[in-house]
Amino acid sequence: MRRRTAVIVVGATCAFAVAANIAAFVFDLLITDAERSDLSGFGLDAVPFLAALWSALIVGAILAIRRPEHPVGWLFLAQGTSVTLAGLLDGYGAYGAIVRDDPLPAADLAVVLGESLFIPWFVLVALILHLTPTGRPLSMRWGRIAAATVAAGSLWFALRLVAPDAAEPPLDTVPNPLAVLPASLDDPLRVVRYVASFLTSAGFIAAGVSLLVRFRRSTGMERRRLLWLAIVVVPLPVYIAVSFLAASGDHQLVLSLATGGFIALIPVAAGLSIAKYHLYDVDQILSRAVTYLLVSCILAITYVAVVVTVGRLIGDRGGSALPSVLGTLAAVAAALPAYRAFQDAVDRRFNRRRYDAVRMVREYVRAPTRQSVEDVLRTALAVPDLRVAYWVSDREQWVTEDGRQVETEPDEIEIRRHSAPVARIAYDRGAIEPDIAEAAAVEATPELVSAGLRAAISLQLAEVRESRRRIAAAQLAERRRIERDLHDGAQQRLLALALELQAAQVNGSPERLREAAATGVTELQSAVAELRELANGLHPAVLSDSGLGAALDDLASRLPLPVAVRATASRYPPQIESTAWFIACEAISNAVKHGGPAEIEVSVGAMNGTLILTVSDDGVDDADPHGAGLRGIADRAEAVGGVLSVKARPDGGTVVIGRLPCGS
Amino acid sequence: MRVVIADDSVLFREGLARLLAEADIETCAMAGDADELESVVEEHGPDVALVDIRMPPSFTHEGARAAARLRDQGNGLGILLLSQSLEGRYAARLAQDHPKGFGYLLKDHVVDVATLVDAVDRVADGGTVLDPDVVTYLLGRRTARDQVEGLTAREREVLALMAEGRSNAAIGRELVLNERTVDSHISSILTKLDLLPQPDDHRRVLAVLAWLQKD
Questions:
Q1: In this predicted model, what pLDDT tens digit does every residue of A244-285 receive, in sequence order?
Q2: What are phi and psi of A275, to 5 degrees?
Q3: In principle, which of A206, A390, A600, B14 could form an S-S bond with A455, CB 3.0–4.6 Å?
Q4: Given an 8 Å threshold on Cβ–Cβ distance, is B19 in contact with A484?
Q5: Between β-strands A654-661 and A563-566, what pairing exists: parallel, antiparallel or unpaired?
Q6: Min Cα separation B61/chain A (Å)
Q7: Residue A90: half-sphere exposure toward Cβ, Cα within 13 Å
Q8: How much is the pTM?
């Protein structure tokens, strides 16, 4: 349920309760006026009921607004409403059915209902005890016991409604309009009713036991939170016993005191727990409620003062709208400063921790120190393991302030600005109330925004460092490869040639020398060819001489599969041509290695100062953009200020697109 | 004299075999990698194995390790390691670890038939051969350079030849000096470098190398 809906429901319930109380009071006056005070419900014995009613309603209202998803708030509200309704129906029934000569409509029905409404109290209190403080029963088994209690209570309630003797004295003179069952069923149903009432009471006691078990098992904060409720619950069997004795022996006052007192005590105990140990995190709401109350008073006083003063000054008696307009303006002007001042004052009084935390963060935002905002939040909230993650929108990543990637959870505190996420804050939930943490974090928003920008820069720097490292590693590998090529190729060939010539010289015969010279020439030619190939692979002469198009054509002619080259004779800066060449070579060799394509298409074009190189193949496998080869050319592209993208073609195969700034 | 050649380049080992043949050294078998080398040595029992330091599969020091294993079998096999590139400290350490019948020669110097044949002969006789370039490298290191400052030019030449593993007689031949003069140079060097005289050439090489290696 949304909080807005919760506020509306709670407001309606409380308004109904006030109206019902007033109505019950009016009926009581009418009864007393008719000299039938023996029927009056508003005696000394009404006080515990009123206390029960309003403590339940107030605690329920606070809980239901603060935590609409928590059932206990609603149960308290229902409990308060049932007591209110019982009072109203009793008054209406007594006046309408007995005092008046001509009975009011449904007054006899009101008597029966009003006399039976104590049963839901038992059930509701039992549920509250079962569900405090987590909102869930202690275990599956306890959940079944709670359900059984509800079932027994419902049966008892239903049977009591249709019983001929539903009303207790002095209302027993009113016949029960719902007693429609044949008289022969009276005795068996009475037995069933007693069993149901016994089971309900047993379930009620079981609920108390459940709370005590929960209390025994709990530790630390939860144990302290449950302490007050546990103290109230311990004498529960005594209350039950007293209630039954009083009910059987017509001691109305004792019964009222015992039942009402007990039912009043549970919300009061819950309230005490809240005041002392933040049960259900309600203390923040209490302090806020006090703030709003004070602010409302101030605004009302401002309004009235302005209206009265201005009215006197202009000597007008209600004819002009001016006083009320001015009064409204004054109240509006005073609203925010008054709210701030009172929030501070109330926090300082009731919520010291929140007040200190927010003030420390506010101080830091006003005059930032060398400390990071993360450290300030840690200190302010006294949570040493608090962690702030910043959203880098163009990378869609959460990172720490120094640019390291982190995992975040959606249920962390999220600070947003202009509806975009700025930061997420993770902390130990047991260490501080979420309300305080959130208030401090919201206060830190400006610093979180600037720290987020720093985090984005750190991330980019980290990426640049990583890319540099990869480029350096790739260069080293490249040099090793060249060294191996030289060593295995031309060097061995030349060395062998030297050995051959030396051998011929040692031999000395002209024939042997001629033979060696012939071999030598062939070997030297091969060595020269090998060196040329090697140099070509590094940086083909055709690339510098005739440009990218010519070099790609040359490459295509030497490959064993069809490569379609679409390129103009345009020239680009040497570094860009060389990078584009590398990208083309790597993309082609990648396609051949992984995709087994039938054809490769290479196109080169320039647009708005950007050279666009596309290598597209129709192979089967998707290329892995994080593989060493493609990662390497992505780094090369980034090193000259370009970008590389690798995409799968819809019909299979891969497209590698490099965009390099070429200044023309 | 019978040798085996281990080198992964067919061109090189064929060329080397032909050159050795011209110098009346018989190549009884050739190998392309370390495993093959061990089996041909076992089969043919040569006097000397000429082994390329770098061989497949890893192209690091496969050859050197295989040679060390062969030496440890103790059949008096001489090892002449051939290297494409100068790895001075590694070569010196190898020479210290296996002084008897061990040589380290750059492939550049293999082409010089006199050096090659001399090295094969000395290794076969159980001597030590260290490539002149390695010695130059060791002498050129900063720590050594400072200490050999005090030697005369002639003494430095003698020291270099001692480090290469030459005998007194060989040093005399090389520098055209009589053996008595070589002796006096050597004792002067040993005194200046604070080294004790050694009873034989191997230990002398070891001492000189240890001295050259120290930091």
A1: 666 666 666 666 666 666 667 777 676 665 544 444 444 555
A2: -60, -35
A3: A390
A4: no
A5: unpaired
A6: 15
A7: 25
A8: 0.45
